């Protein structure tokens, strides 16, 4: 995941509902990606600790399976001084 964008949906009832678009890149492109590598999951809503779709007709759910380390992060070093 590289970005989360918030949008608002005006329901027919007059209620405004917040929803999100998750922008991500495939794992094999995570170290170095271009705009053409972006993928989107649209109309996501947070319900408790779940990420569901805005409309009831879509029963999909988003799961976070793993977290990648940023490409520019350096591994930490431990030095023991006695």
Structural commentary:
- By secondary structure, the protein is mainly β.
- It is built from no helices and five strands.
- It has strands at residues 3-10, 16-24, 39-47, 50-53, 61-62.
- Strands 1-2-3-4-5 form a five-stranded antiparallel sheet, with no helix packed on it.
Q: Per the principal axes of the C-alpha atoms, what is the gross shape?
A: elongated
For the biggest β-sheet, the strand order reads 1-2-3-4-5
Beta-strand percent range: 35-45%
Oligomer: single chain
Radius of gyration: 18 Å
Uncertain runs with pLDDT below 50, 5 residues or more?
none
Measured between the Cα atoms of the first and last residue, the distance is 42 Å
Number of helices: 0
Q: Which structural class do the helices and strands define?
A: mainly beta
Give the overall pLDDT as a whole number.
81
Order of helices and strands: EEEEE
How many strand elements?
A: 5
**Helix percentage range:** under 10%
- Biggest β-sheet, characterized? 5 strands, antiparallel
